[in-house]
Amino acid sequence: MARTASDCLFCKIVAGEVPAEIVRSTERTIAIRDINPQAPTHVLMIPRDHYPDAGAVGRADAGLMDEMAREAHEVAVAEGVADTGYRLVFNTGAGAGQTVFHVHGHVLGGRGLEWPPG
To answer: What is the number of structural domains in the chain?
Structure first.
């Protein structure tokens, strides 16, 4: 898997070529505020390396999804939604609503989140 993709928005954010509000950063991940928030807390958890979707990460990099989930929880703690509840969503494929084809998890919280979603 390519470490970056030249036409990928999130690769450009990771490289510092496109501005974003970074709320958390590690060696392998960054967390940024969503520019179109769907909840009071809406942060995107993004790996620094390029993978098109969650399935690709699972096949190629054992442990990265675990790290993303841990970091998402740390974001939820920092945002004050860990105790009341938050949702971690990975849209995989256009039919599921994925619009940027660089895997990313949405950390959503701060309001009631209905079930089923969508």
So the answer is: 1
